[in-house]
Model the fold of this input.
Amino acid sequence: NAGVTQTPKFQVLKTGQSMTLQCAQDMNHEYMSWYRQDPGMGLRLIHYSVGAGITDQGEVPNGYNVSRSTTEDFPLRLLSAAPSQTSVYFCASSYGGPSSGNTIYFGEGSWLTVV
Amino acid sequence: SQELEQSPQSLIVQEGKNLTINCTSSKTLYGLYWYKQKYGEGLIFLMMLQKGGEEKSHEKITAKLDEKKQQSSLHITASQPSHAGIYLCGATGAGSYQLTFGKGTKLSVIP
Done:
């Protein structure tokens, strides 16, 4: 049982490049989400999904794109990377979402640097 | 939008001492999560509280939810070096799919 798996762990991008952060979970969770963590800002929600084919925006969605074609996978795409997107990205999943009272599991994070 | 303020921002305690971390919300708390994070690692789930007055314990860590004060506290008894890390609280509203986090409390435990 791997839980929530994020790849890559580290990535350096040049400004303007695009890339995809992968997130996979093997717990059959309907709810998945992406956060970014910046010094002094805490964790902020980028996008979330309540099931395959359903996604919605969080607090800071600009510059990011998501899709949910399967229950297991929830990739985060940076369309044209900017230095302001340098951050640590976390993927999370759970049954039912935050207000359900179920445990929300987090991945180990992806460190992204945009130069 | 809901805002969470954690206090203190950082804390240095001697091994064996007790400590308390607070998480205060700008809105009524429906659900409150506590996580621990070590540098360079992901978030480790500690506890989730949903009912006013609820209290949960795991090993030497106890969390309480005071709905009237819109506040949750995390208490560690007889701290150990293994308790060191960043403690994060996250809150959600009824029926919400969004979790809002505080900025964290950095705990250092000196042997």
About this structure: The longest strand of chain B covers residues 85-92. The two ends of chain B are 40 Å apart (CA to CA).
